[in-house]
Structure formats: C-alpha cells, structure tokens
Amino acid sequence: IMNRNVKELVKQMTLEEKAGMCSGKDFWHLKGVERLGIPEVMVSDGPHGLRKQAAEADHLGLNESIKAVCFPTACATACSFDRELLEKMGETLGDECQAEDVSVILGPAVNIKRSPLCGRNFEYFSEDPYLASQMAAAHIKGVQSKNVGTSIKHFAANNQEYRRMSCSSEIDERTFREIYLGAFETAIKEAKPDTVMCSYNKINGEFASENHRLLTEILRDEWGYEGYVMSDWGAVNDRVKGLKAGLELEMPGGNGNTDREIVEAVKNGTMDEQILDTAVERILNIVFKFADNRQEGKFDREEDHKLAGKIAAESMVLLKNEGILPLKAQGQKIAFIGKFAEKPRFQGGGSSHINSFKITSALDAVKEVAEVTYAQGYDVKEDKIDEALLAEAVQTAKEVDVAVIFAGLPDAFESEGYDRSHMRMPDCQNILISRIAQVQKNVVVVLHNGSPVEMPWADEVKGILEAYLCGEAVGQAEVDLLFGKANPCGKLAETIPYQLSDNPSYLFFPGDGRTVEYREGVFVGYRYYDTKEMPVRYPFGYGLSYTTFEYSDLQLSAEEIKDTDTLTVSLKVKNTGNMAGKEIVQLYVADKTGAASRPVKELKNFVKVELQPGEEKTVQMQLDKRSFAWYNIQIQDWYAATGKYEILAAASSRDIRLAKTVNVVSTTELPIYVTMNTTISELLENSKTKPIIEDMSSSLMEHMGGSQEAEEGNAASEAITPEMSLKMMENAPLRSMRSFMGMSTEEIQELIQKLQTAAEEN
Questions:
Q1: What is the longest distance spanned by two Cα atoms in the chain?
Q2: Catalytic residue among 232, 304, 480, 563
Q3: Burial of 459 by CB count in 10 Å (0-12 exposed, 13-18 middle, 19+ buried)?
Q4: Among 76, 78, 587, 633, which is least packed by CB within 10 angstroms?
Q5: Which helix (H) or strand (E) holds 588?
Q6: 3-class DSSP assignment, residue 349
Q7: CA atoms within a 13 Å half-sphere pointing along the CA-CB vector of 207
C-alpha cells in the first residue's frame, strides 16, 4: 500500500481541480486528476445487487445495466434477524464490486418504515431503529472488508416519496434522535461506512444537503464520522451552502456549473478555502482507500445465485400454518396458481433494479421435487378480472389436494418515485384467492410484496408464507420451504396491521406537499400498536417454524446496575419439536420508572440460534445505557431515569416468554430550575431539594385540609381524603403557598433561593 500524503496532494491542486473533485464527472464517476495520479473511480447502485450501467446512465433504472445477481431486498433480509448472514451478503457484494471495478456501492438504506405506503419501503429494513442499524452495520462490515465503500442512506427523515425533493419533515428532537437518527447512529459508529448519502427532503425547513447541524454537528462532531458525505442524485439546492454545511460530493456532475460557484465563493471570500481543502481530503482518502487496495474480485454468478437462494430461505416468514405445511412431494396432488409462480416479482422498481442474470421461479424449482399443475389465474398488467383465467384457476384448484397461490403486488403498485395510495393487493388477486378458498379447503398463499398488504382472505386459507421481494432465486427458496427441505426461520421486521387506517402515521402521511408532520412522535410501528393494545394481523417479530421452541431460566448478571454498567442477560432455548430449526430470541426493555412518556417496550437486542431436535443452548445478550435510555431534550443527551426496568425475552413483540426486573441507578442528576411554578412533586423527585420540602410538607398537608385529626364521619373528612390532599399538594406549584399557607411572595422567593442553592450543590 502506497504511503500517501493526501494533504500534500491537495496543496498541489489548482482551485479549479479542487472544486471539480466535489462533483461527479457524470452519472456514476468521480473526476480524476491525471497529472497528480488521482484516478477516476466509479460508484454504483446497490443495496442488494450491482446495478452497474455501462453507457447511457439514469437513476431510475430505465437503461440496461450489466448482468448481475439480485439478492433479496432489505424488507426481506431484515426478517432474517441474522447479522452473520448480512455480513456474508455484504462480502459477496464487495467481491462483485472489486471484479467490476466499482469503488462504492450505494447502500444500505436504513430509513424507518413510518407508513406502509412509502414507495421505497422494500429497500428499507424496519420500523425499528435498533434492528435497522444492526442489519445495516453487518452489511457495511461485509462490503467494506473487501476494500469497497458503502453509502448508508438516505440521511435523514426521508420516509416517503411524495414531494421528496422539496417537502419538509417536521419532527421533534426526541423523535428524530430515538427513531429516525437511531437507525443511522449505531451503524455509522460501529461499521464506519466510507460514505453517507444525504437525502432530498428538508428537515424542519432546512434541506438535508445544507443542514450544518445534521452533516457536521451530529454526524461528525457527535458521532465521530470520518468519511465523506455525498448527495442523493440531484439533492443539492445551494452548492456553496451545502459545502459549508458538510456536503463534500455532489452527484451527479452538474456540467461544471456548481464547480464554478465554489471557485467564485473562494475567490470573493464568501467561503474559506480551508473548507474546500478539507472536503477534497475526505473524498481523496476514500478514493485512494479503494484504488490502493485493489484485490482480486470474483463475480461467480452461479455461486452468488445459490447464496441469494440461501439468504431468501432464511428471510421468508411463515405467517400461518394450520397443519398444511410442509407439503408432501409424493402422494399429494398439488396445484401452483398465479402468475408469480411462473414470473415471480422479486425486486422493487427504480434505482436499485438489477438486471438479473438468471431467475429461478417456483415453477422452475418444483420440477426437481414434485409434479404440480399450473394455472395463471390473473394478469399483472392491469387490475382487472380475466374471467377465463379465473375459471381455469378455480377448476385447477378443485381437482387437487392442495392449492398454492402465488400472489402479491405487481411492479406498478410500488416503486421509487411514488407512494402507494392504499394497502390493498389487486382486486383480481383477492377475488381469485377467495373463489379458490370456496372450492378448496387446503389453500396456501405465498406473498410477493415490498411492504404489508391487507389480507381480507387470511381466515379463509390454511397457510400464508410471506416471501417479500426475495431476489432472483426466490422460487428455489419458496419450494425448499413449502416442501420442508428448509425450515422457515424469518420473523417480521415490521407490523402487519389489519388495515391502513390502524397505522399511527395515517392522519399525517404524506402531508400537504410542503410539510409532513411526524405527530405520532416516537410511537412508530409496534411502539404504537403495543402501547395502544391494538389488535394487529401479525405483530412485529412474529414468525412460525416447523418446530417449536421453549424458553427458560432467564438470568440477569445483576439485580441493580448503574446506568454506566453493562447488563448481561442469558436464557436457555430448547428445540422441543422434531425438526432442526432456528429461533430468533428478542430482548425488549420496558421502562417502569414513569419518568417520560415511552412505548410499553422497545427492542434492544436479539440473537438467532440454531438447534437440532431436543437440543438446548444458552444464549447471551448485552444491554448498555442506551438500552434503557431515552433522549432528554433538557440535557440534550441520552438519559436513563433511576428505577425499575423489565427485561423481556420474547418470541415476538406480542409473545413475551420470560421477564425479570432490574433496578437502574442514574449517574446523571437532571438540572432543576426552581420558579414560582415548580411543583412540590418535582422538588420531591430531586434528591437535593427533597429534604427541604419534606420538612415543610406536613404543615402544607394540614393547610390543605388533609390532617389526620379530622373526626370520623364529619362531612369535611369524607370530602377530602388524605390521598386527595397528598395529590393536591404534590401537584401544587410553590406560588400556591401564598393561598394555602399564608406565605408572602418574599418568603416564597427566599425558599426558592434556598432550594436552587441546594440543587446546584455538588
């Protein structure tokens, strides 16, 4: 590896060359500087496969790209809850990039699934920030182990396609930190992606691409990020303002116009040249990291296709199974019905669209296993009932023992660029399923979709397999799972509600085109459904297996910890069925302190464990301060209040198997500013003001009519119970001492001074 001094190199560049490094040469290449040995490098769309376009480039995937391997999309891989699997997929993508001379693959995408309608949900991992960041970190580590960069995106609060280039996400600080930045933070700190891609939208009125607080204060100063920030394609509003805010690279190149604006700003003194130098250094560090570490890449499409199939089988989720699965290869007459059995939908539309070198449909894959009859049933071109296709499908279903219907959302229903307008599948498919269920009691539905769909027929069928958009080997994985060659082990990375209007963002999505208000706050996904105790079709973290698992012996490493300590949680998991399988154990934390309005529980760790029939293993997970903390805007930091927290070991967010309580002691004393309107209860909660108030509280109680001496049976004592007086007293502000205790304003001011002094003592 060459020992380069990038700072020296930047000193040798002309102002024009430096400005030129800050925007792309074209759609996919950065500019080089030949005389200084700076190479042109290529970036290419990801996240689940290589979309390397040769000649004519565009970002919506309209033009041909090289033949590549389409891996399962993030909506599917997140359901694997498998960090190692994501890392392996990342390594393979890294190898492919090396083979194709691609320096950065654009992904992973970690935006939160705020509404099931977002057109790009298929590219995003989860409604849960912890799960999203864990999956992303594993993906990034895998790719970057091959000296290829990643670009975690779209930073930040880009949760819809509607007016995404101009709309402002209006979002309070606590929600922003806990949910929307949360997905990025851990992945950026732990896996250190080479690049971060900023989003199109505004955040609280300021474009992400020129948001100094986001790109410099949070990303670099707080999180210690060292790579470079690139724009989403066409996200730049004001180039110079963006550069000052921390946006190093504009993509794609803008014909040199914005480069000239940068040169002009340096010449006329509106921007310090040092800002430009730093930006170029950051870009060159990553360019040379790739160029100086070229390694032998291998792009074995056949091998990678097999891996795509294995990942798909680990990611699909068995939602329903009333004894109908696995199917029998012999002695059972089976029909495959639905266009997706023959031509599966396995990826989303838009910038991540892969030109797959081969596609294995369920009809292809089943030939090795069993004989099936096939009927198309519906067409995907438009949503209208074709009576002939429908009749043929119903007849085919009638004549067999089991009908497997391959259904889901056609391409036109979800893509980058627009949001879905509803959560339904095409009517022609819903009607097909219901008609078949009327003549055939053994029906399995296999779903191909990038985000949840309403399932009006769910109670009419015996089995449902959620395949999501599972990549080009989707059919192989489906057949392996349907016939029991593989055991389903995925669990939902998002809640499937009964209907769209159940979703917490329903009243506020997608806004009026100028702004979208995130009024549901931290109550996104299961945080809302579970706190509200609302019935859902299938809960977050849910998924069935062909075997059963038993949890026991939950142990905590301590009954009480300081918020600076790490808690180790262990439990035993046993496979109590007769087939080898994998179980995803989820660890939720429930804050019982009452210090803030919080969801009833939040996912804070998980582990996936493989067990043979009858085998038992002990699994361990760690919880740290952040596992207990919420973002306290008063101190602008993470805060875990002193008190009890329940540790819940669960098979889904609605299936808690074991629980234990830990006491957490906060090492942070929240500041208190005592005024006339500070309440007695606030002063009792603070360890330093508590003794002063306790001295006074009995006399205050008496003045409020809550003395114990009142005779039994008199009207006053019945009207005012001690409990009531206590509550009235706790809720009373200090100024009420004028009314109830006859204190003068001056006396209260003296008391305030005394309390404030006590509060500030170290």
A1: 99
A2: 232
A3: exposed
A4: 633
A5: strand 581-591
A6: strand
A7: 21
**Tokens, residue 359:** 């596609």
Pairing of strands 560-562, 515-517: unpaired
Using alpha carbons, list the distances in angstroms from residue 514 to 38, 235, 418, 510.
42, 16, 16, 10
Q: How far, in Å, CA of 139 to CA of 593, rounded?
A: 36
Instruction: Quote the CA–CA distance of 206 and 213 in Å, as a whole number.
Output: 10
At 363-389, the pLDDT tens digits run 999 999 999 999 999 999 999 999 999
- Distance, CA of 219 to CA of 230 (rounded, Å): 13
- Mapped onto helix, strand or coil, the DSSP state of residue 643 is strand
Secondary structure letter of residue 118 according to DSSP: -
Which one, of 357, 611, 305, lies nearest residue 476 by Cα? 305
**CB-CB contact of 611 with 597 (8 Å):** no
pLDDT confidence of residue 350:
79
Do 59 and 233 form a contact (C-beta atoms < 8 A)?
yes
Half-sphere exposure of 598 (CA within 13 A, CB side): 22
33 bridge partner residues: 38
pLDDT for 62:
57
β-pairing, 655-665 with 643-652?
antiparallel
Could you tell me where the beta strands, DSSP code E, fall in 612-748? 616-623, 630-632, 637-639, 643-652, 655-665
3-state secondary structure (DSSP) of residue 204: coil
Angle at CA of residue 712, ends 711 and 718, nearest 5°: 105
What is the residue whose two structure tokens read 């300021």?
Answer: 206
Closest CA to 380 of 347, 407, 346, 399: 407
CA distance 373 to 220: 59
β-partners of residue 228 are 195
pLDDT digit string, tens, across residues 111-142: 999 999 999 999 999 999 999 999 999 999 99
d(CA 539, CA 408): 19
Residue 268 CB partners (closer than 8 Å, separation 6+): none
Print the SS3 string covering 452-469.
CCCCCCHHHCCEEEECCC
Residues in the chain: 762
Half-sphere exposure of 446 toward its Cβ, with a 13 Å CA cutoff?
A: 31
Q: Label residues 684-720 b or e (16+ Cβ within 10 Å = b).
A: bbbebbeebbeeebeebbebbebeeebeeeeeebeeb
Instruction: Return the exposure string of 156-177: e unless at least 16 CB atoms fall within 10 Å of the residue's CB, then b.
Output: bbbbbbbbbeebbbbbeebbbb
Helical packing angle, 129-144 and 182-191, nearest 10°:
30
502 catalytically annotated? no
User: Rounded to two decimals, what is the model's pTM?
Assistant: 0.95
Yes or no: say if 604 and 589 are a contact pair by the CB < 8 Å rule.
yes
Closest by Cα among 492, 503, 530 to 651: 492
Contact between 312 and 76 under an 8 Å Cβ cutoff? The reply is: yes
Tokens of 416: 């980058």
Residues 368 and 309 sit within 8 Å (Cβ to Cβ): no
* Strand, coil or helix: 704: coil
CA distance 482 to 445: 11
The band of 588, judged by pLDDT with boundaries at 50, 70 and 90, is very high
Residue 556 phi, psi (nearest 5): -110, 140
Query: Which of 130, 85, 78, 74 is closest to 107 using CA atoms?
Result: 74
**Residue 624 structure tokens:** 């740290």
Give me the half-sphere count of Cα atoms (radius 13 Å) on the Cβ side of residue 119: 21
HEC assignment per residue over 158-198: CCCCCCCCCCEEECCHHHHHHHHCHHHHHHHHHHCCCEEEE
Nearest to 357 by CA among 307, 424, 278, 304: 304
Tokens of 382: 């438009």
pLDDT value of residue 742: 85
CA distance 654 to 47: 31
Spatial distance between the Cα atoms of 572 and 552, rounded to a whole number of angstroms: 5
Give burial (CB, 10 Å; 0-12/13-18/19+) of 673: exposed
